Structure formats: structure tokens, C-alpha cells
Amino acid sequence: MKQPLRKDLEPVATSFIVKELTELHFDPNWHFHPHYQLFLVEEGTGTRFIGDSIKPFGPGDLVFLGPNLPHLWRSDQAYFNKQSGLVTRGIVVYFAEDFLGTDFFGKHEMTLLRQLLNHARQGLEWTGPTRAQVEAALRTMSKQSGGFDRVISLLTLLNSLSHATDFRYLTSPGYTNTVKPTETDRMQLVHDYVLGHFPDDLSLDTIADLAGMTPPAFCRYFKARANKTFSEFVSEVRIGHACKLLIGGKLSVTQISFESGFRTLSNFNRQFKDITGQTPSAYVRTYRQL
């Protein structure tokens, strides 16, 4: 049985949680929880789903998520093969908004931190100099045994992030989580099927039948919960995969377009620019300059 969409962290004695993760693959379930989450990928590649954002991830990927923002770091298929020798590693911090008391972030001195927490409800990522600083801070924090020093480390880290300007929002401005915990299995089935079959011709009738709905009902259902049409979702999954292949630099653009599920190069180039705002070649140049 699949885990519920809404996750509640196990009770702990400390005011917040810092974990070093080492697994064959990251949690494959699309879920949300009532905590803030700061997550650094140290090892592993795949596709990151946050709200209505779909992007590839790799080592150094750093995001900050607000409460109840659905997310999933879907490791590449090779990580699900136990004989591959691959592992994923990361550092994650979970904390509730009231982890230092109900009024702490309401104080005047906490204005910038409060703004940071509000921004995190859309999801944030850092790709500039701040990312390297946060990586070092998270690694230090993960080695601390807890207590006062770790609390100060977290506040110092949040303060640094509140002053940083090299961030990007992840979800669209109007995105809200409308998914109910009781709908876990249906949305999980759709995600799993698309992630396993996106290079192929996906049939709306097949997907709708999988969800136990008629095609028109499924289209309305999916758009209301994902803030995008099903076809837009599939295109973003395919382009996210294409981005990873482009970064790898082993295939031509034509090969990548077919590997990602596009049947014509012109359609691939058009959708790539619509979704990323760049041509494939410009995307590669931008990535290499980061």
C-alpha cells in the first residue's frame, strides 16, 4: 500500500530535525507535510517535482519549501536497480513555523526571516554563490550533536538566506495545493505511469482509465489539482528529461528529442523554448556558466 500523500514527521525531542540521507533512491512518493523543508542533494540525479514546477536535479540542488507544498525528488530509473551500485545522498532540515514559540517570527527583528518563510510557500531554489555557502553550513549543522549550537546555526543560515538575492521561485504565482490526502493513490498512479512511459506515445484514454475516470472528467480533475493541463504536465516531464540529457553532453539534440518522447525535432525545439525560455543550445551554455 502506498504511503499517504500527507506525511507527518515522527515526534522527536528536539525543536527541529536535521537528517543525512543515504538511500538507493529518494522517496518516490508525491507528498506534502506541514513543515518547512530545506533540502540539499549531495549525490544522485533525477527529476524534481514541486507544486507545478518540474525540473531536473543533480548534486548541489538546493531548495526551500514551505508547509503543505507537494513535492517529489524522483531518482532516475537506474537508481531503482539494486545491482547498479548507485546511491543517493542528501541533507534535509525540517522545522515547524512555531519551533521556537508561536510568536518568535512575529517579532520586529524577524521581519526578513518572516518574508523568507512567506516566499518559501512558493518554493525557492538557489543556483548562485549562496548555494555554496548553504552547502557548507548544512554539512556543518549535520555534524553538530544538537542543542543550542545547532539552533544558532539554523537561525544564522536562515538569516543568510533572507538577505540573499540569487534565488528563484519554483511554483507559479497562483499555485495552491488543492490535493486532498484521500486522493493519494489516484495522483500517485498518474505520476508513476507518466514517469515510466513518457518516452512513448501516451494515450489520454489509458491514463483516464487508470484513474478510473472518463477522459473529460480526468482532464478537469488533473488541471484543478496540478494547476496545468495533463498535456502540459507530460511536456514538462519530457523537457525535464531532455535537460538532463543536454547537461550530460553525450547525445545530439535530435537524439535527445526522440529519447524524451518527441516525434519531431521542430516540436521539441518549440516546446523546449516555451517551457525553459531558451533554445537547447542556449540552455547548455547557461548551465555551463553556473
Automatic annotation (TrEMBL):
Span of domain HTH araC/xylS-type? 188-286
Per its UniProt record, what PROSITE patterns does this chain match?
HTH_ARAC_FAMILY_1, HTH_ARAC_FAMILY_2
UniProt keywords, alphabetically: DNA-binding, Transcription, Transcription regulation
Q: Which Gene3D superfamilies match?
A: Homeodomain-like (1.10.10.60), Jelly Rolls (2.60.120.10)
Record bears the keyword Lipoprotein: no
- Asked whether the keyword DNA-binding is assigned, the reply is yes
Query: Superkingdom, according to UniProt?
Result: Bacteria
Q: What Pfam families has UniProt attached to this entry?
A: AraC_binding, HTH_18
| One term of GO molecular function | DNA-binding transcription factor activity
User: How is this protein named in the record?
Assistant: Helix-turn-helix transcriptional regulator
- Tell me which species this is from: Spirosoma agri
